[in-house]
């Protein structure tokens, strides 16, 4: 699968320039690259992005069996790979004219010395820029005739490119029984008979309820849970009834022990339903006494309840009168409150004009008092009226200031409530992260609603999913996983993309840098067969993605696989179940071997 060092994000056409590239130390943008360009060192047989695009599906399937193929015409030496000594798959011609498998040549280029790769046939130096795909040779090899891998039982002869297609229908192909618990392997032509007639783990209909059951569990089903099996009545009568009718049968079973119908009146007799009628007929007088005693008790309770109801009614009437009085008192207050705002507005409008009028009147009063003797009493009354108006205006202004203070207090308390709500949300999110955080270098990430989230990515919504952070130890590196369900970069629309990213941690100052631990990414098989899909890589110490994060809230560039697994193999695999109940499980494992020793060596 293709492994790339890239910044996960939106598709190339929708990213802003500053988001699609990040500058390196020399000031040039660090673009998405394949392994041979990014300097990452990969474990296992991880192919390059270019190889995955060129290698056909039939060639991929033949990689594991190419040494056991039997050709009708002996294979020419020019069609034999000098490195793996098998038939050449996806032939690549080097600069000296020799032909190799694409994967073999790629491994040769990766494992060569710094002076350059050398052709093992003639010792010539291989120039990677001059390597090209030999399509003419590829057509000849794909047309070679081979015997079926199940020969001599199968006598079919097919071309090399159609061999795997033939094997998918060959009657002599060895297949494993799909029934859970059965590990038998047999030829395809015998599989159907095995599934229907001889497999001890096959499914058969129950002879009673006709519901399908595993053959090994039918006996337990019949004895314990089959609803149509007739069983003995648990109460001891001689009838046999279907298991699902036991409840209905007990409603009429004469052997079921029941209470006397006068139990509520005080009779404690309990006997079989068939004999209970005799008891009721024989104890009529006793039952009448019990009923009379019970009725007397009930009459006494009714009298008590009537007295209590009368008292409660009187209390309700008193409370109603009190409520009516309160409503009468509140009504003028409400009316006064409604008119209060109008009074305040009118008072403010007239305040400034009244002050001017007041000063004018005071001057006039002084002049009139000098010239008019008899009008002094009238002027004194006018002054008192003016003083009363001024006092009323002052009270209105004070009331308005008080209302303003109350509004400010309300805004302040509302702000405090919003702040507390925000802090509570942050604490809740932090608590959820702490509950899900691991400190052993491992993460099991459960991605629910897989198809809905993938469709959202297809429609252009923010595609990146991020896991909760995990650590390589209580004082270790802080790491998170990222996933693109519809692919990113080279794998967009065709593959699942998985990455990991180094995040700023609390103990970064004590840890050795750059980060050098091997990282494994896996998609887990939920069928129980253990056919997990896994890829891993070792960090390149020179890459900026594995240096200490530069800022407290800025993570490094994510590293991983843009072509981790094709979407077709993810949703419809042959021997595994990766997506079950619309849920996908991703596992991230960091090799922590030797990490604690390095941390403690760096400490004083």
Features:
27 strands; flat; single chain; Herpes Virus-1; disordered N terminus; six-stranded antiparallel β-sheet; alpha+beta; 4 domains; 16 helices; 604 residues
Secondary structure layout plus pairing:
Layout (H helix, E strand, L loop, with lengths): L3 E2 L11 H4 L1 E2 L5 E2 L4 H4 L2 E2 L6 H6 L2 H6 L28 E3 L5 E3 H10 L20 E2 L1 H8 L2 E3 L9 E3 L3 H5 L6 E3 L8 E3 H11 L4 E3 L6 E3 L3 H7 L5 E3 L7 E3 L3 H5 L6 E3 L10 E3 H10 L1 H88 L4 H61 L5 E7 L1 H9 L6 E2 L3 E2 L6 E7 L10 E9 L15 E5 L9 E6 L20 E8 H5 L7 E2 L2 E8 L4 H8 L2
Antiparallel strand pairs: 1-25, 2-3, 4-24, 5-6, 5-7, 8-9, 10-11, 12-13, 14-15, 16-17, 18-27, 19-21, 20-21, 21-22, 22-25, 23-24, 23-27, 26-27
Helix pairs in contact: 12-13
Structure description:
By secondary structure, this protein is an alpha+beta fold. It folds into four domains: 163 residues, Herpes Virus-1 (2-Layer Sandwich); 51 residues, Herpes Virus-1, CATH 3.30.40.10; 121 residues; 166 residues, Apoptosis, Tumor Necrosis Factor Receptor Associated Protein 2, Chain A (Sandwich), CATH 2.60.210. The chain has 16 helices and 27 strands. The strands form nine sheets. Strands 1, 19, 20, 21, 22 and 25 form a six-stranded antiparallel β-sheet that branches. The chain is flat.
Biggest pleated-sheet summary: 6 strands, antiparallel
Helix content: 40-55%
Structural class: alpha+beta
Q: Approximately how much beta-strand content do the residues carry? A: 15-25%
- Could you tell me the mean pLDDT? 79
Overall geometry: flat
CATH homologous superfamily descriptor of the largest domain: Apoptosis, Tumor Necrosis Factor Receptor Associated Protein 2, Chain A
The strand count comes to: 27
Per the CATH scheme, the topology name of the largest domain is Apoptosis, Tumor Necrosis Factor Receptor Associated Protein 2, Chain A
Q: Gap between N and C termini, in Å?
A: 43 Å
CATH architecture of the largest domain: Sandwich
């Amino acid at each position: 699968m293709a492994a790339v060092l890239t910044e996960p994000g939106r598709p190339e056409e929708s990213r802003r320039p500053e988001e699609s590239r990040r500058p390196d130390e020399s000031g040039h943008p660090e673009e998405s690259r394949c392994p041979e360009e990014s300097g990452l060192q990969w474990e296992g047989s991880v192919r390059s992005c270019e190889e995955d695009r060129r290698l056909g599906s039939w060639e991929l399937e033949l990689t594991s069996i190419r040494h056991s193929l039997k050709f009708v015409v002996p294979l020419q030496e020019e069609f034999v790979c000098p490195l793996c000594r098998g038939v050449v798959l996806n032939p690549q011609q080097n600069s000296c004219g020799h032909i190799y498998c694409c994967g073999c040549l790629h491994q040769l280029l990766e494992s060569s010395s710094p002076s350059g790769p050398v052709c093992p046939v003639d010792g010539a130096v291989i120039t990677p820029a001059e390597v090209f795909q030999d399509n003419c040779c590829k057509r000849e090899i794909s047309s070679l005739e081979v015997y079926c891998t199940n020969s001599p039982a199968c006598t079919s002869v097919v071309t090399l490119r159609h061999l795997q297609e033939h094997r998918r229908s060959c009657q002599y192909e060895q297949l494993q029984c799909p029934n859970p618990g059965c590990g038998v392997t047999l030829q395809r032509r015998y599989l159907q008979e095995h599934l229907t007639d001889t497999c001890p783990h096959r499914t058969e209909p129950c002879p009673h309820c006709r519901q399908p059951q595993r053959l090994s569990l039918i006996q337990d089903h019949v004895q314990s849970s089959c609803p149509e099996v007739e069983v003995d009545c648990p109460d001891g009568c001689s009838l046999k009834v279907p298991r699902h009718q036991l409840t209905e049968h007990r409603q009429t079973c004469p052997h079921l022990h029941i209470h006397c119908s006068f139990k509520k009146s005080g009779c404690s007799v309990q006997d079989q339903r068939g004999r209970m009628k005799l008891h009721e007929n024989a104890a009529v007088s006793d039952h009448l006494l019990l009923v009379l005693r019970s009725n007397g008790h009930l009459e006494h309770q009714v009298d008590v309840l009537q007295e209590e109801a009368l008292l409660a009614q009187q209390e309700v009437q008193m409370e109603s009168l009190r409520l009516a009085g309160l409503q009468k008192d509140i009504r003028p207050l409400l009316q006064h409150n409604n008119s209060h705002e109008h009074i305040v507005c009118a008072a403010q409008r007239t305040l400034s004009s009244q002050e001017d009028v007041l000063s004018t009147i005071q001057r006039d009063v002084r002049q009139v008092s000098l010239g008019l003797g008899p009008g002094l009493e009238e002027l004194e009354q006018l002054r008192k009226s003016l003083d009363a108006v001024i006092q009323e205006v002052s009270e209105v202004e004070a009331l308005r200031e008080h209302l303003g203070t109350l509004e400010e207090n309300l805004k302040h308390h509302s702000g405090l409530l919003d702040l507390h709500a925000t802090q509570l949300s942050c604490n809740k999110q932090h608590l959820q992260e702490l509950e899900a955080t691991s400190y052993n270098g491992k993460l099991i990430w459960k991605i629910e609603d897989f198809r809905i989230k993938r469709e959202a990515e297809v429609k252009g919504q923010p595609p990146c999913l991020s896991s909760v952070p995990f650590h390589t130890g209580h004082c270790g590196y802080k790491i998170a996983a990222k996933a693109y369900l519809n692919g990113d970069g080279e794998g967009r629309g065709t593959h699942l993309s998985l990455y990991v990213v180094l995040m700023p941690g609390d103990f970064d100052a004590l840890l050795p840098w750059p980060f050098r631990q091997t990282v494994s990414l896996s998609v887990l098989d939920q069928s129980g067969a253990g056919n997990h899909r896994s890829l891993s890589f070792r960090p390149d110490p020179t890459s900026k993605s594995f240096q200490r994060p530069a800022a407290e809230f800025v993570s490094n560039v994510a590293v991983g696989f843009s072509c981790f697994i094709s979407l077709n193999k993810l949703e419809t695999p042959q021997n595994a179940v990766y997506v079950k109940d619309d849920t996908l499980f991703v596992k991230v494992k960091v090799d922590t071997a030797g990490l604690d020793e390095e941390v403690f060596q760096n400490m004083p």
